[in-house]
Write a structure and sequence with these properties.
Pfam families: Acetyltransf_11 (PF13720), Hexapep (PF00132). The protein has 256 residues and is an alpha/beta fold. The protein folds into 2 domains: 132 residues, 3 Solenoid (UDP N-Acetylglucosamine Acyltransferase, domain 1); 54 residues, Up-down Bundle (Udp N-acetylglucosamine O-acyltransferase, Domain 2). 16% of the residues lie in helices and 27% in strands. The chain contains 4 helices and 27 strands. It has a 10-stranded mixed β-sheet, with helices on one face. The chain has a 9-stranded parallel β-sheet with strand order 1-4-7-10-13-16-19-22-25, with no helix packed on it. Strands 2-5-8-11-14-17-20-23 form an 8-stranded parallel β-sheet, with no helix packed on it. Strand 26 and strand 27 form a beta hairpin. It is elongated and about 65 Å long.
């Protein structure tokens, strides 16, 4: 299942039933899990660990050195989980010593063509990145987030769970869980109700989240005042807790 034109370093570790297409290159410190398919003309380099049942399409560059002038060759890492689809021309970089030293992509993610995931990004599970979505360094993307095509996320931003951005959205501050965002720069446009329905959120939970959104964005309250009001309501409505947890760790401020 390894094409004869592929170049595999003897130090690379390949699991069972791994397939590697023509003219692909696998570096010395790369680990590939069982049943993972690597297309033609793919470059896997750096200290990169790829889990099982992944599909990586042609012309992707996975595990390249960070696009960061401070990087001096430290043995930082890229870790990719299981069951991810990574389409054509994607670029994922290693981490840097200035952060955790590792870039991570979780499980069951759908990554479309030309996506860039820069150094030290932390991407969760079940996300969808449409074509040309771009993450700068140190970005955190939580589970079930959807980034529309040509979305750009500024370094150190955080995008919460179950969010959705429209095409060509420019994110320069944090996007709280459940929120839809669009524009340059990104502004909020309600909660991601349709996505939440598809994931089994009940009508009562959706109503609670819509009320929380109104408190955060439509009540005229300052952010800390809105946060205090949500804190009062969370015992009766635990669906709000992820919003409060997000606000507690937000460093760049949220889109308003």
């Amino acid at each position: 299942m390894i094409h004869p034109s592929a170049i595999i370093d003897p130090g690379a570790q390949l699991g069972l039933n791994v397939s590697i297409g023509p003219f692909s290159i696998v570096g010395e410190h790369v680990e590939i899990g069982d049943n993972t398919s690597i297309g033609p003309h793919v470059v896997l380099s750096g200290h990169t660990r790829i889990g099982r049942d992944n599909r990586i399409y042609q012309f992707s560059s996975i595990g390249g050195v960070p696009q960061d002038k401070k990087y001096s060759g430290e043995p930082t890492r890229l870790e990719i989980g299981d069951r991810n689809t990574i389409r054509e021309f994607c670029t994922f970089n290693l981490g840097t010593a200035q952060d955790a030293g590792v870039t991570r992509l979780g499980n069951d993610n759908w990554i479309m063509a030309y996506v860039h995931i820069a150094h030290d990004c932390q991407v969760g599970n079940h996300t969808i990145f449409a074509n040309n979505a771009q993450l700068a360094g140190h970005v955190h993307i939580d589970d079930w987030a959807i980034l529309g095509g040509f979305t750009g996320v500024h370094q150190f931003c955080r995008v919460g769970a179950h969010t959705m951005t429209a095409a060509a959205t420019v994110v320069v501050q944090d996007v709280p869980p459940y929120v839809m965002a669009a524009g340059n720069t990104a502004t909020p446009f309600g909660i991601n109700a349709e996505g939440l329905k598809r994931r089994g959120f009940s009508p009562d939970a959706l109503l609670t989240l819509k009320r929380a959104y109104r408190t955060l964005y439509k009540s005229g309250l300052m952010l800390e005042e809105a946060r205090a009001k949500l804190q009062e309501e969370v015992k009766a409505h635990p669906e709000i807790q992820p919003i409060l947890d997000f606000l507690a760790v937000s460093k760049r401020g949220i889109i308003r």
